[in-house]
Design brief:
177 residues; 19% strand; 5 strands; 39% helix
Length: 177
């Protein structure tokens, strides 16, 4: 769902070219699954990523499996709730699931928290576009809750920023965000 929302935000709401693919087999029920989003200001010739500019890993198995596809200068963002062994020291570590569980009382919105952080850290998609795409995909009656999840991710990412001299690791304190 995260890949679909991101692709809709980029393509429909920000008006860029986008291709989204996913591989969800039986592994999606407890293993690693993958969604790729390719974005460009020009037409896209091939819908799959050859090398990744960004990898957002929500669990250790996915981080281990897909990290090899990340460009050396690529950005790694992980859910530090579940990813504890980092392949590089300069990953962005944010406990998306823990934030969702403790601040929002629902782990199932960890992906929306992650989208908020991704939008803040990369600026690849406008805040207005990501919010519109999220609100267009969530069940009716949960819009305010999902908006709060998105904002929690943005807030967590703002605490890190893009400055390499600033710690890229968030130690979550429930009252912090």
């Amino acid at each position: 769902m995260m890949g679909i929302i991101l692709a809709e935000a980029i393509g429909i709401h920000d008006g860029k070219f986008v291709a989204q693919t996913q591989s969800y087999g039986p592994e999606a029920r407890g293993g690693s699954s993958k969604a790729e989003v390719v974005l460009s200001d020009r037409e896209i010739d091939y819908p799959k990523a050859m090398r990744l500019d960004l990898l957002l890993a929500m669990n250790q198995k996915s981080c281990d499996e897909y990290f090899q596809d990340l460009k050396p200068e690529g950005m790694l963002i992980v859910d530090s709730t579940f990813v504890t062994q980092l392949p590089v020291p300069d990953a962005f570590e944010i406990p998306f699931t823990r934030i969702a569980r403790e601040k929002l009382k629902r782990e199932m919105v960890a992906n929306i928290v992650a989208l908020g952080a991704l939008s803040e850290l990369t600026r690849a998609v406008s805040r207005k576009a990501i919010e519109a795409a999220v609100l267009g995909r969530v069940p009716k009656g949960t819009e305010a809750f999902n908006r709060e999840a998105l904002r929690a991710g943005i807030s967590a990412a703002k605490r890190i920023g893009k400055n390499p001299s600033v710690s890229r690791h968030i130690v979550w304190e429930n009252e912090d965000l």
